[in-house]
Design a protein that fits this description.
It contains 31 helices and 17 strands. About 50% of the residues lie in helices and about 10% in strands. It is an alpha+beta fold. Strand 15 and strand 16 form a beta hairpin. The termini are far apart. It is globular, with a radius of gyration of 29 Å. The protein has a six-stranded antiparallel β-sheet with strand order 1-2-3-4-6-5. Strands 12, 13, 14, 15, 16 and 17 form a six-stranded mixed β-sheet that branches. It has a three-stranded antiparallel β-sheet with strand order 7-9-10.
Length: about 775
């Protein structure tokens, strides 16, 4: 019921623009600032319920906790003569409900809307706010196409429990009274079951909105509320392809991932979703704008433009198909992209590393053919233990074919059954079965690589073992066990891996792979375990040289040697040559691409670094560590927004990713987001890097006493580079340069980044900085 007054506080009410069970929204004029605003008031009936009034006030708190261009700004809140109100930004536009009622939207417009929506919710999630009522009625689109997110009344802040009833302006899908929060048709399965809703719950709701924009209908709409809840929690929606044959496969994959029933299988936050949406938008930036099949017919002139665009796209598509379908001279028709799923091993839970190792060996062998795009270990192992079918995984990864295999022990014999399956139709493209003695892991591995290599007519023949030494089988088993530990990238796992590798070398002194991996344990200890480079360099170099001696054409040996030149010697030119040799031998080697990208970044060869970074990401899109590398590369290039997105994705993929929170905090500092940076550092441990980051943050916030304490702690512990960055932030330049000199003398791994470290930028004009660069070979 409209108010019987024409003003609230200093806001003059012009007209009522919306109403619901909880209150009304008015267009108004702020007479203090002479600007148009929207004023939301709580109804007299609702104000008598303390829990509803609490929700009303929480909306003001949640939405004003941060600012974002896609969230309606809160200007103020209060009470005037017994009436509670919120004054907010007035948006001259329409809700998404009304936009959809006018007819279908072009795919690019849909992507644009959901990208802005995800950006808004990513900011909310970053601040610990979960909206819990994402739906078209709460999405406004102004005259310029800018999206504004409304109504944070159901928002959860820091897991505060609330059990309120919902009211809504969207009469199509209001929520029944009870403790289930949200609007039924748009809520997540966990909301429907009365469970706590985290960021992934908002992601599900985004998926419902996105589905509706594409299909023109809701994915789980039932005849009754109970029917809708059943569909929501137990049934899958109809495939979007039924409603739009021209829907980009990547967009369909994004929607499917948003609508996963289990929260752990969805994007874990809107920030993670945002990364994929931005990639999709970039990929489509030069493409056509196709309308959904349910869209209203366009005007004649627009139809002509669409038909011409479609014809051009068809010509391009036919050309691409012919290029793909017609093999080039001397090459075979092979799947252009392949994912090797983690192999299963039955009855040998203590030997799971064997299956993992053979999986990785096949990935490496396939990655040596430049014609095939092979998904890397970290990405495919993301699906280990998944309930998805191989075809579903293939579609999720956008690959042409999937390799699956099962290992079965039979006494002292081991059987391996493998097949190559088409993602498109599930057809079996190849399959075979091998049997060897359980101890002969190399033999059965080579049988598999040789079999699939012949089927695909790989350009590089598999490098089988020629006249292996007597201890080769046991050495290889120890190597596989070490590799599993090495992939964890923790100090304990690196130490454990080194022990296994030394035993492997003692068993077979001429086996190249353990030497290469042992060299990696030394360089990784400098990077991840905080060990002094000077204490490791001689042992790392000796192991890498042995790897090259016994395996001169082994990519792992060249990557190991490059890492020694890179980490220990600061011989950038030699490191670059070794990375290039590794990539020439194995074009799909993710480690070579990612380390080479980081080398190029510190040499300020940014375009080349970006190219290598993107190549690595295309091969290993679900690797937390790789996204952290990408964040580092963007950080050193001064692209802090891109760095923040990559770092957030790394942490979403693996909250334990080494130094992830520290790196995220450093990026946030460069963005001026000091409060968020401090939150990131709360759970980042007590390593020198963390102490230094906290010291820098204290210095930036003007807490010189706390920064000075960090400086003393770092200096006393011999953390020279970390001392330098805190001293530089405190403008104690003499101490900064003294510490940098000591760091260079010890070949501290971080000192190799001095030229591009944003924390040292203010020192660049000092002649002493040129001396530091010369010591590091960076001048």
């Amino acid at each position: 019921m409209p108010l019987d007054r024409d003003r609230i506080a200093h806001y003059r009410l012009v007209r009522m623009v919306g109403a619901g069970a909880m209150g009304e929204v008015y267009e108004a004029v702020d007479e203090h600032l002479n600007r148009r605003v929207a004023v939301k008031v709580i109804s007299s009936a609702a104000s008598s319920h303390p829990e509803i009034r609490q929700r009303f006030l929480r909306e003001a708190h949640a939405a004003s906790a941060f600012t974002h261009p896609n969230i309606a700004h809160i200007y103020g809140a209060g009470s005037d003569d017994g009436i509670d109100y919120i004054a907010m930004e007035y948006i001259d536009g329409e809700t998404l409900v009304h936009r959809l009622a006018r007819g279908g939207m072009a795919i690019d417009d849909i992507v644009d809307v959901v990208l802005q929506l995800a950006d808004a919710l990513a900011a909310a999630h970053d601040h610990g706010v979960v909206h819990r009522d994402v739906k078209p009625a709460n999405v406004m689109i102004d005259a310029r196409g800018q999206v504004k997110m409304l109504d944070f009344g159901l928002a959860r802040i820091e897991a505060a429990p609330v059990t309120l009833q919902e009211d809504t302006l969207d009469q199509r899908s209001s929520t029944n009274p009870g403790t289930i929060l949200g609007t039924t048709s748009y809520m997540s399965p966990e909301q429907a079951l009365g469970e706590a809703a985290a960021a992934a719950s908002d992601v599900f709701s985004i998926g419902v909105v996105l589905y509706e924009m594409i299909a023109g209908r809701l994915p789980f709409a039932g005849k009754t509320t109970a029917d809708t809840l059943h569909r929501l929690t137990a049934l899958e929606p109809e495939p979007l392809a039924r409603f739009n044959y021209d829907l980009p496969a990547e967009l369909e994959r994004i929607v499917r991932k948003c609508l996963e029933k289990t929260a752990a299988r969805r994007y874990r936050s809107a920030g993670e979703l945002l990364v994929d949406l931005k990639a999709l938008a970039r990929d489509r930036s030069s493409g056509s704008r196709l309308a959904p099949r349910w869209a209203a017919p366009p005007p004649r002139t627009r139809r002509a433009i669409v038909l011409v665009a479609a014809a051009v796209v068809a010509v391009i598509a036919i050309g691409a198909f012919l290029r793909r379908a017609t093999p080039s001279a001397g090459s075979a028709e092979v799947p252009r992209s392949i994912a090797v799923l983690p192999f299963n091993i039955a009855g040998m839970s203590d030997s799971e590393y064997v299956a993992d190792g053979i999986t990785e060996s096949l990935i490496n062998a396939l990655a040596e053919d430049p014609r095939i795009h092979v998904m890397a270990r970290s990405t495919v192992f993301h699906f280990k233990g998944s309930a998805l079918t191989p075809q579903q995984v293939g579609r999720a990864l956008s690959v042409d074919a999937i390799v699956t295999a099962d290992l079965q022990p039979h006494g002292d014999r081991l059987t391996l059954a493998a097949e190559l399956v088409s993602t498109a139709d599930g057809a079996r493209l190849w399959g075979d079965r091998y049997e060897r003695a359980t101890s002969d892991l190399i033999g059965i591995q080579d049988d598999l690589i040789g079999g699939i290599g012949r089927a695909l007519r790989l350009q590089h023949a598999p490098r089988g073992e020629q006249a292996p030494e007597a201890g080769r089988a046991e050495a290889h088993r120890l190597y596989l066990h070490a590799q599993r530990a090495l992939n964890e990238r923790t100090r304990a796992s690196i130490v454990s891996a080194a022990q296994d590798l030394r035993r492997a070398i003692a068993t077979d002194p001429s086996y190249a792979l353990p030497y290469a991996a042992l060299a990696d344990t030394f360089t990784l200890s400098a990077r991840y375990a905080g060990m002094a480079t000077a204490d490791l360099s001689a042992r790392a170099r000796d192991a890498a040289m042995k790897a090259l001696q016994f395996g001169p054409s082994l990519p792992e040996a060249h990557v190991a040697m490059a890492s020694v030149y890179d980490t220990c010697d600061w011989n950038w030119a030699a490191a670059e040559k070794e990375y290039q040799k590794a990539i020439a031998l194995r074009p799909g080697d993710v480690l070579a691409h990612q380390w080479y990208a980081l080398l190029l970044a510190r040499l300020e060869r940014r375009a080349e670094a970006e190219r290598e970074k993107q190549l690595a990401l295309s091969l290993d899109p679900l690797s937390a560590l790789l996204h952290l590398f990408a964040a580092n590369i963007d950080y050193y290039a001064g692209r802090f927004d891109a760095a923040a997105n990559s770092c957030a994705k790394a942490i979403d993929l693996d909250p334990r990713v080494p130094l992830g929170q520290v790196q995220y905090a450093l990026i946030l500092m460069q963005q001026g987001r000091y409060r968020d940076a401090r939150t990131a550092l709360e759970s980042s441990g007590s390593r020198y890097e963390t102490v230094a980051a906290r010291g820098v943050l204290d210095a930036l916030e003007g807490n010189t006493a706390a920064a000075g304490n960090a400086l003393s702690s770092l200096s006393a512990g011999g953390a020279d580079y970390e001392t330098a960055v805190v001293a530089a932030t405190l403008h104690r330049d003499d101490l900064a340069f003294q510490s940098l000199e000591r760091a260079c003398a010890k070949h501290d791994v971080y000192a190799g980044y001095a030229k591009v470290d944003p924390l040292l930028t203010r020192l660049h004009g000092d002649r002493r900085f040129l001396a530091v660069l010369r010591r590091a070979g960076l001048s």
